[in-house]
Structures are given as structure tokens and as C-alpha cells.
Write a structure and sequence with these properties.
Length: 223
Amino acid sequence: MQEFSEEYIDKGTEAGPKKGGDFDKDRKSRSRGLINYAECYDLLYQAGYAEAHEISHGISSGLAEVCSKLVGIDTVLDIGCAGGSLLRYFQQKEKQVTGIDCSAVAVQLAHDQGAHAITASATDLPFSDNSFDLVFSSETFEHLEPVHADAAISEACRVSKKYVAMQIATQIDRAHWKKIVGHDLHLSCFPILYWRDKFIKASKGTQIFGSGNRFIIEINLLG
């Protein structure tokens, strides 16, 4: 098992959004699985969401850099690849990288940048078991409704054969984009320990890196 020094592994944060009021009301609605992700994000990307997403993906470049140093990483899947900034980063590191996004508009933006991406759902990945050395995702899983989050976690762990690396926002998103689509974008606002423990359970793996809202799990294929 690859290990990082203790300074790179923290306990995450218990901080999460304040409950009550409109947030709890919206949460009950979201739990029924009412959001059409493709329509929602096509609309957002047509309204300029790509630029904002590039900023958040830029923040996660530190996690991508850590991942690029993992031993035995040749193939990478980026779940929620948006316009492809992290696809390009891994390409520069000479990795074979594939991106998926629910938005056909986002996938076209990635294609325009010379990246390989396909339109697909995080809850039903069109890949065989253990297809990628690394499954990576930045600022995506919090956009899933709670009813879909567990399925996406299982899928990410299913298609990885070595590592899963996640950066997941734990706070409610800014109101600007909410006005465009009529609902919060961060549909699952939970403490990072919640997400980490979910991935550990699904993968039967071990956390080898953790910092803030980022973590890397080493998969246990033997169960």
C-alpha cells in the first residue's frame, strides 16, 4: 500500500450547512430524485458555467498533482469532467484519461480542447469493473441528489482497480447559478467524513491521503 506522511492525512471537518428553513424543505423534495441533470447542466454551461467550473477545478489541481505521483497510475477516469481542464492536466502527465459528464454541452467543450470525454451518468458508468487505475472527481458528488449519491459512489469504486480520489464541497453553493435553474446545485451537503466513510465502505479500502475536503482511497480488490 502506498503511504503518505501523517501531515497529509487529517480527520476532515465536521462542519456542514446549517439545517432548517428552506434548506430542509428543498432537501425533502430532492430526496425524491426530481432533478434532470442533463437539462440542468446543459442550461448552465450555455449560460457560462464552464468558466466558474474551471476555477473550482483549478483549485483541485493540488489533488491532481498528488494523484499524478501515485505509483502505477496509467489510466484515469474523471467523473464530472466539465470543460476538460483536469483531463488536459492528466494528459500532460502522459496518462490515458477519459472524462464523463452528464452535460453534452460540457463534453463538447472538452472535445474542443482536445480531451477525450463522453456523455454519461455518474450513477451508471459505461465501463467494466476495474477499468481504471485512478477514478478522480472534483466538485461533482455534492451536485447529486441524496437518492443518487450512493449509486455514484458504488460505481466509482466498481470501475477503479487501484485508487479513488475525491474533492467534494461541503457547503451550499452560491445563489447566482440557483437563479438560472431554480434550485440549489449542491444537493448533498454533508461533512467530508460522511463522504470519506461512504467511499471506504464501498471500496473496502484505506484512506492514504486527506486534506480539507479532499481524500484518496486505495481500493481493496480482495474484499
